[in-house]
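QA checklist item 7 of 12: single-chain prediction sanity check.
[x] sequence parsed
[x] length recorded as 188
[x] structure emitted
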Amino acid sequence: MQTFAQFALPGTILASAVGAVVLCVVLLLYGFKSEPDDERAPMRRLLLTRLGYALAAACFAVALMLSTAAFLDQRRVAAAAPPTAPTTDETQRLEARVNELEQRLAAAESRVNDSAAVATSPVTMERRHPAVASSARPRRIASAPRVASTAGASDDLGVNVRDGWQAVKRGFREAGRDIRAGFANLVR
């Protein structure tokens, strides 16, 4: 079966091509009609038409059988083949890559934690980086609502949710003004 399966694809292509050629020749010579309308040789035309259709159908059936045999053999070979385990070199290379990525992740996390140590102004509750001077405040975008920092907030969930809801409501109130200002700028 293994040697037969390797010839199944070319056989399928050949059988399909022969069937298509036979069908095209029969249709070209005799058309779609199956009843004889030719006075000269009505029985010969009918015989050749039916034989041509039968030969084309047989070619397509052979193509179907060959493709089915190839498909079943392919599934059998795939099911019998054991999964290939990665080689030790590949395993070592992947482990080294994972270790390198873990080190890079740890370094990035430590940088984020170091830069996240910010001082909070008690009046405005804005986050400021220690390197930024108090006179050099970052510009505030007009459409972004100002939200109070919850860095020093309570651990109580209810208080955090209530504060968050208040910030959302303030944002929605400011959104109307921002939309109006945007339309006014668009008209200009």
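[x] summary fact logged: Residues 155-188 form one domain.
[ ] second reviewer sign-off
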